[in-house]
Amino acid sequence: MLLNPQYIADHNQLRSDSHRSKLSYWANEVEKAEFVIQKLIDFQIAIPSWALGTGGTRFGRFSGGGEPRSLEEKIDDVGLLHALNRSSGAISLHIPWDIPKDVAAIRQQAGSHGLAFDAVNSNTFQDQSDQPLSYKFGSLQHVDKAVRQQAIDHNIEVIRHGEALGSQALTVWLSDGSCFPGQLNFRKAFERTLESLHEIYAALPPDSDTARWKMFVEYKAFEPNFYSMTVGDWGSSFLYASKLGPKAYTLVDLGHHLPNANIEQIVAILLQEGKLGGFHFNDSKYGDDDLTAGSIKPYQLFLIFNELVDGMDAHGMNHATDLGWMIDASHNVKDPLEDLLQSVEAIQIAYAQALLVDRVALEEAREANDVVQAQELLQDVFRSDVRPLVAEARRRAGGALDPLALFRQLNVRDSLIRERGAKTVATGL
Length: 429
Ligand code: RM4
Ligand code: MN
Ligand code: MN
Hints:
Layout: H1 5-23, H2 30-42, E1 46-48, E2 56-57, E3 60-61, H3 71-85, E4 90-92, H4 103-112, E5 116-117, E6 120-121, H5 145-165, E7 169-173, E8 177-178, H6 186-202, E9 214-218, E10 228-229, H7 234-244, E11 248-253, H8 263-272, E12 276-281, H9 298-314, E13 324-327, H10 336-355, H11 359-367, H12 371-382, H13 387-396, H14 403-409, H15 412-420
Parallel strand pairs: 1-4, 4-5, 6-7, 7-9, 9-11, 11-12, 12-13
Antiparallel strand pairs: 2-3, 8-10
Helix pairs in contact: 1-13, 2-10, 2-13, 3-10, 5-6, 8-9, 9-10, 11-12
Residues 253, 255-256, 288, 328 line the site of one manganese (II) ion (MN).
C-alpha cells in the first residue's frame, strides 16, 4: 500500500498550530533544538523483516490480519512506516525466512521506498524442511563437523544474499548451548564455535569503495538453551569478536541480559574498546520479551543512549552510520506496524534527550564527586519533553507530525486486510 503524500500534508496542516505552540517551548534554546532536529533527521532505525506479522508464544499465535505474505509485502510495510516517520529507512532480513527471488526487483522496490538493507541474519536455531542435518544439539558448536559445516555454509550463503542486496553486515545469533549440566564440554563448544565463526568471517566480502562488511556476534544469556548459552554474555561475544578480527563486533540485544544487568555500562565499555557493532532494540519486564522499545524501562533506554552519544563522540564516530541501529521485536497483541511506530519514536526520544545532556557540566560534577548534581543533570533532561523536536524532525523530513494518529485515521490495517486477507501469516517469530 502506497501512502498518498497529500494525506501527510493535510494531516500536518491540521496539526500545525498545536505543533507550533508545543515547539515554542524550545524557542529559547534554538541552537540546541536545531542541532537535535538535524541529528534526528539523519538517524534511521532498521525494521526487522521478522516482526511485521503478529508474533506469538509457544502457546499460540493470534493473527491480526493483513500480515505481509511475501518479502515484497514486507518491504511495502516498512516503506509505509518510513513514509509516515521518515526514520525507518532500512530493513533487516532474516534468511531463509526472506530469501529474495528476484534480487534486482527487490532492490528496485526497496529503493523506490527509500529503503536500504541493513544487516542480514542467519538462522541456525530452527531446522528447515530441506535441511539434511539437525541443529537440535547446536549448529556452529556441534560435535559433528558435518553439522557445523552445514551451518557455516548457511551463514556464507546469507552473506552472499546480503552482498546481492547491498547489505554490509551479517548478524549471527546462535541458540547453541546446553539444557542440562554435563551435556556440553564448555571449552570444546567455545573452540568449535570460534573455529566455525572464523570460517564465516573469512567469507566476508573484502572492503571496497562502497562497502565495508562487518560481522555482528549477538549474545543471549538464556533460551532456548536453559542451562548454558555458548555465546551467553557480552564477555563471550567480545572474546569471539576480538579473536575473529577487526571486522567482528558485538551486537547488543536489550532483551538478552539477565535481570537488572547494567546494559549502559556494557555499552560504554564495548564502545571504548571499539567493539560495539550494533543494536537490537526492544524492551522487557522478565526476559527476552521483545516488547516495544521504551515501554517498560524508558530511563534505561535514555541511559544507554547517554553512553552511546558520549562514547561515539569520544571516538569521533558518526551517530547515524557507524553503528547498526535495528529493532528486534515481536508483537503478540498489538498491530505490528503501530508497535514499530511506537518503538521508533521511543528510540528517537531517548536519542534526542541524550543529545541534550550537558556533558561539560556532567564531567565537572563527576570530577567534584557531586553525585547529586550528576543525577540532576541526567534526570532534568530525561524529564524534559522532546516530543515536539522529534515531530519537527519528522515534519521537515517529509513525514507526519503524528504517524500513529495518521495510520489510524487512514485505517491502514483495514486496507491491508482487504488487500491481503484476514488470515495471512507472515514468516518470522
Ligand atoms: C532471537 C535473537 C535474534 C533474532 C531471533 C529471531 O531471540 O534476538 O536476533 O534473530 O530472535
Ligand atoms: Mn536480537
Ligand atoms: Mn531476542
